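User: Show me a protein chain along with its predicted structure.
Assistant: Here is one chain, sequence first, then structure tokens.
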Amino acid sequence: EEDFFLGLHDMLAEMPEVTELQPVPDAHVPVMKFKLQGISIDLLYARLALWVVPEDLDISEESILCNMDEQSVRS
């Protein structure tokens, strides 16, 4: 979570094409809101119960929801 709301935030903040950057970690569904070249983006945060995320991960499989916290399941 720290990587998402601090690390990613810092990376996005350095990009000139990113504006209106607003992290909302305590929302019902944690989200990073920003505009990228004028296009509004809501980037949702979800914590997976995995040490390493495989490149071929199919996020449409319901089994991915096992052992996730409530906020991540909502994401």
